[in-house]
Every structure is written in structure tokens, then in C-alpha cells.
Design a protein that fits this description.
The protein is α+β, with helices and mostly antiparallel strands. It has 26 helices and 15 strands.
Length: 628
């Protein structure tokens, strides 16, 4: 039963690693960032395999974007020295120069004396999010799971006594019993080596070639101790001598032995004196190669320690949602001991409203796609609700069959407080900006009362045109604001000219045209999140180059300015001016129709006409405009 449980745990942790939505890693800090372990998902994102990064310690640093490399390495160095958690977003190149944005969250694992041992972390591909949102809202950083405890070493039961009995029957070692002895021992061990009492190798089974690369005859007459690791040699000699004194005694142990290619293999061994023949004592070494198992056990042990020390909560459920594993962080985050929550349903950590509106949709997508991440509300034992960024994935056995789910959470309460402060500050700034824009508009109207409301009406039309063109919200907002202050430069034009009835002189018209330049000069020193100064500067340009102040053509004119130009012409022509009566909306629309593609952007004209002719748009009536 114990073996079955251990196997199930192994499969669980292995599946967690292989099905995680991100890249789990363990690394040490050196001139680069050498990986001790990288989950196989790395190949999905960068094209490089886990072995590529492990065998080439400098690869990760080499592939970092040059603009990010120094910053990233500095941040890792500081985190290593201060032993603090690290959250980074950076760019890295995969194969074929594929650029990937990684959100990398890790923490330093230390020994009992406070010395940094290694980083453990999770890298998430946020390339799509980075393009759309600029930054992933604090992803999850989490390391997945191996065994709680390494499996106990299983040493083959070696029937050395039966081998001894068989050879006691044979008076001649090689003439009568050699072939039978070989077939006997080859059934029980990976390989066997028999030495004389001084350690000279007298016999090696044929299977030694598979494990150590030597042909049996290559080992004959050499001392076995010369192949054993120097740190293990004394303990092997001790076992050898104990057996020499008592042939019935079996000495078991573990040591390293060097193969033909120079690598070291870890063996479990049973040492026993088999018989005496013609006055000689022979010692048998029955060997079982556990190198691969040791490697896996070490990985399991490191990962198990890492999981237990994770700052983020991790839980595993079966297919029904029943909790079968939780680490300390998960239990403590919810205010429970681990023993209190094993066997609970995952819904135990949420209230009814969260289950209905957050958890159920989250799990539905998890089941459909195999992985999901996002923000979920959780409830502590004391009833306190907290937000957690949650990453989840289906876990599968070696046959690919789903047998449960893994959930990784990070409490983002502090983030939410900062986010609220940011939103409040943003709203205050937005209110201040809107007040400033309104003030600019009133300044113009005070100088030119005959055009009162003109800028607001132009802004309303230009905004709808931009929305109909399916432009980004930021561009629509810039057009709305620029249109509302596009005549700000008129505060430097004498009011006598602005309000003069009848035809204006050429020199007076030249002064009026200068309002575009004046507006640019007013707005340029002010830091806006949009190019308001340039939009205002260009709103009298025409796509054939006949406009002012710079005679720009076509695409040289900002799209925002081309939209403003059409809205400005339509509103101005349909409204009263001191130097002419209102021409009406029909004349204004005829103007943009006739000059579509000549003076005005054809796409903008089409959207404007559609608003009036098919969507029933009308200007709000006001001074100078009765077309509402």
C-alpha cells in the first residue's frame, strides 16, 4: 500500500510539472543564472529544451533582450543577496529570433544558516497580454511538485548463500562451477564482480559492460578499489575486511564506481565471502546500479523542499474537486491546519456568491481548455474575504488520463489597495484635466461669443466619427479633447477681427489663420497623454496640400486632425458667423461630398455622411447654430 501511495504521489507531481501553464525552474546565481531544473514547457515558448538550458548555463543570459539583460541580472543579484522575493517582466529571444515576454516570479530558498541556496520560480508567457495591456496583473509565480519524501532505496535480495553452497560442492572453481555460477548470479543482480582477498578482480559478469562500459576481461587482475571513488574507498575496504574475517557475514552498502567513460555510477552492493578453494578466499560484490534513481530522488528532494517552503499556496484535488494535497502556505492563507482541509471540496474555500459568479466559470474554462488563470475571491476561516490570483491546470498520469487539478494562489490584497489608490488618483487627474479643457473652451467663447458652443458641437461630431471608424479608445479620447479646444489659439486674435461683420481683409484673415500656430504654442509645453498640440496645429490642413499653416498632404496629416477638419467644416458652414449668414447643413454636407478625396479624407467623409443621412445625427442647437 505504501509503495502504491508513493507511486501515486510521484505521478501527481510529475503531472503537475508537465501540465503547468508556465515554466517551473530551479536555478542558482552565478555569472548567468544556471538552471538545476527547468520544466519541459520551456520548449513550447522558446524552442529550446530543458537540457539546452541545463547543459549550457550561459544560454538564458545570452538570449535575454539586450535592453533588459543588465536590469534583469542586477535584480536577480539583489534578490539573491537580500533573500527577498523577485517579480520581473522581461523579453527573451527563442529560436529563430522569436521574441517572448516572460513574467518571472521567484523566491530565494536558504539553508538553516541563512545562506542562499537557489532560486525557485515560475515563468509565464505574457506576450499577448503585454501587447494588449502593457503588463500582466500580477501573475502567479509558483513551483510545482514532486514527492513529499524520497522513496526508500530498495536493494535486491541477494541469495549469496545458495551461490556459496553450489560452489562448495565444486572442488575446482573454474573447471566445474564457473559457467553455472555465471548463469546463477546474472539472474539476481545488475552485475557481479568476484575478487581475491587482496581485491584483485578474478571474475566480472557479462552485464558489467552494459552498466560500466568495460568488457569483463578488461577488469581481470585489476584491484576493484582503483575504480571506487576516493571518498568511498575506505568504507568499501572496511566491508571487504569484515567479510574476510567472517565469510558468512553479508556487508551491504552504497558507493560510487567509475565507468569507462569517466562518469561515476552509484551502486548498492552486497559483499560476501563465497567459498575457499585450494586455500584461497574469494569475495563477491553483487551490484545494483541506482544512479538514475538517485538523480530522480535528488530532484524529488529539492522540489519537495521547495514546495514546502513556497510563499504561495498550492493544492491538488482529484477529479471530483476533493483536496488530496495542500502545502503549508495554502493552509495558512486560509487559516487552517493542513490536516483540517484534506478531504474538503475546493468550494470549501469560497462563499456562495464567489462560487456562482467566479469559481464555476473559472472551473468550466479549466475543464474545457486544460488550464486557466485569473482573480478569484477566497474566504478565510475567520470569514475574512481576500482576493487571490489563481493559476490552475489539469494533472494527468503517465498515460495522459486526467486524475485531478492543481491550484496555485497568491494573495493580492495589497495589490488591490494600491490599485484602488491608483484609480482614485487617476479619476482626480481626469477631473482636473476635464476642468482645464472646459476652461480653455470658455476662454475662446469669451473672445468670440458668436461661435459659442462651436467647439463642443465639433467635439461631439468628431467623437462619433472616430467611434464609427472603430478606432482605439485612446485615439477617440484624444479627438474628443482636441476638438473641444481646437480654436484655443483665437485668444491671441483681436476680438475686433473675430467679431467683425462683413468681409475681412486679407491681412485680417492672415491673423485669423495664425490661431492654429497660437494654439500649438499654448498646448505644446503641457504634458498630455495624447498629441493634442499637433492635432490642433493641423486641423486646417487639407489632404491636397492646400491647407495651412504648413501645406501638409495626405498621410503627413494626423488621422485625428483629418477627422477634426471634417467635423469643423461641417459645423462652421452650418452656423452663423459675423461675416456671413449660416449656409445650412445641406450646403455643409455638399461641401465635403464634392471635395471627398481632394480636400478631405474619404473614409472620414463617408462616416460623417452616414451619421447625418442614416443615423439621424443632429447638432445640439445653440448660439449661431439652429440645425439641432
Amino acid at each position: 500500500m505504501k509503495k502504491l501511495e508513493t507511486k501515486t504521489i510521484n505521478l501527481t507531481y510529475q503531472s503537475i510539472l508537465e501540465n503547468s501553464p508556465g515554466v517551473i525552474y530551479i536555478a542558482v546565481l552565478d555569472e548567468s543564472r544556471s538552471f538545476l531544473y527547468v520544466s519541459p514547457q520551456i520548449a513550447n515558448f522558446l524552442g529550446y529544451t530543458s537540457d539546452d538550458f541545463i547543459k549550457n548555463p550561459g544560454l538564458w543570459r545570452q538570449q535575454l533582450h539586450p535592453e533588459d539583460r543588465d536590469r534583469v541580472m542586477y535584480e536577480f543579484k539583489v534578490a539573491w543577496e537580500l533573500k527577498k522575493p523577485l517579480i520581473l517582466t522581461y523579453r527573451i529571444f527563442g529560436k529563430e529570433d522569436r521574441l517572448v515576454w516572460f513574467h518571472d516570479e521567484s523566491q530565494v530558498v536558504s539553508d538553516g544558516k541563512g545562506n542562499s541556496l537557489y532560486f525557485q520560480g515560475l515563468m509565464l508567457d505574457v506576450t499577448e497580454k503585454q501587447g494588449k495591456e502593457g503588463e500582466l496583473h500580477k501573475a502567479v509565480a509558483e513551483l510545482d511538485q514532486m514527492m513529499n519524501e524520497p522513496p526508500a532505496e530498495l536493494v535486491s535480495q541477494i541469495d549469496l548463500d545458495s551461490a556459496a553452497d553450489e560452489f562448495d560442492k565444486a572442488d575446482r572453481l573454474f573447471l566445474l562451477g564457473k559457467d553455472y555460477f555465471r548463469s546463477l548470479v546474472n539472474k539476481h543482480f545488475d552485475f557481479m564482480i568476484i575478487t581475491k582477498k587482496e581485491g584483485d578482480i578474478e571474475y566480472a559478469s557479462s552485464t558489467v559492460a552494459h552498466y560500466l562500459g568495460y568488457k569483463p576481461e578488461d577488469l581481470l587482475e585489476q584491484k576493484i578499489f582503483t575504480f571506487i571513488h576516493p571518498d568511498d574507498c575506505l568504507s568499501v575496504i572496511d566491508r571487504h575486511n569484515v567479510v574476510l574475517k567472517n565469510l558468512d557475514k553479508v556487508q551491504e552498502g552504497e558507493f560510487r564506481i567509475q565507468s569507462k567513460d569517466g562518469s561515476w555510477h552509484i551502486l548498492t552492493v552486497a559483499v560476501k565471502g563465497i567459498f575457499r578453494s585450494r586455500g584461497e578466499t574469494f569475495i563477491a560484490y553483487a551490484c545494483h546500479d541506482i544512479s538514475e534513481q538517485k538523480k530522480v530522488d535528488t530532484e524529488h528532494r529539492v522540489l519537495s523542499t521547495a514546495v514546502k517552503q513556497l510563499a504561495n499556496g498550492l493544492a491538488v484535488t482529484d477529479n471530483t474537486g476533493t483536496l488530496i494535497f495542500a502545502n503549508n502556505a495554502w493552509a495558512m492563507e486560509h487559516g487552517y491546519a493542513i490536516v483540517d482541509i484534506i478531504g474538503k471540496n475546493i468550494g470549501f474555500f469560497h462563499n456562495e456568491d464567489q462560487i456562482a459568479h467566479e469559481v464555476t466559470p473559472f472551473v468550466d474554462k479549466l475543464i474545457r481548455t486544460g488550464a486557466n488563470f485569473g482573480e478569484l475571491g477566497h474566504v478565510r476561516r475567520d470569514g475574512v474575504v481576500f482576493p487571490a490570483f489563481t493559476t490552475a491546470a489539469i494533472v494527468r498520469d503517465n498515460d495522459g488520463k486526467p486524475f485531478g487539478y492543481v491550484y496555485i494562489i497568491r494573495n493580492i490584497s495589497d495589490n488591490k489597495v494600491l490599485e484602488k489608490r491608483f484609480q482614485d488618483n487617476y479619476l482626480r487627474l481626469q477631473k482636473t484635466l476635464n476642468g482645464t479643457i472646459e476652461t480653455f473652451g470658455l476662454m475662446v467663447e469669451m473672445r468670440d461669443p458668436y461661435t459659442s458652443g462651436h467647439q463642443q458641437r465639433v467635439s461631439a461630431l468628431a467623437t462619433l466619427i472616430a467611434e464609427d471608424m472603430m478606432l482605439d479608445e485612446e485615439i477617440v479620447e484624444s479627438i474628443k479633447i482636441a476638438s473641444a479646444i481646437h480654436d484655443i489659439g483665437k485668444i491671441f486674435v483681436p476680438s475686433e477681427i473675430l467679431n467683425k461683420p462683413g468681409k475681412v481683409a486679407d491681412i485680417e484673415f492672415t491673423m485669423i489663420k495664425a490661431h492654429a500656430q497660437f494654439g500649438y504654442d499654448i498646448l505644446k509645453p503641457i504634458v498630455f497623454p495624447w498629441p493634442l498640440a499637433s492635432i490642433v496645429y493641423q486641423h486646417h490642413e487639407r489632404i491636397d496640400g492646400s491647407g495651412y499653416p504648413n501645406g501638409l498632404r495626405g498621410g503627413m496629416i494626423l488621422l485625428e486632425a483629418r477627422i477634426l477638419a471634417v467635423a469643423d467644416v461641417v459645423e462652421a458652414m452650418s452656423s452663423f458667423r459675423p461675416y456671413r449668414p449660416a449656409r445650412g447643413i445641406d450646403a455643409a454636407l455638399d461641401e465635403i461630398k464634392q471635395n471627398r478625396g481632394k480636400l478631405y479624407d474619404p473614409d472620414v467623409v463617408d462616416k460623417c455622411l452616414n451619421l447625418f443621412e442614416h443615423k439621424g445625427f443632429k447638432f445640439i442647437a445653440g448660439p449661431g447654430n439652429t440645425n439641432g
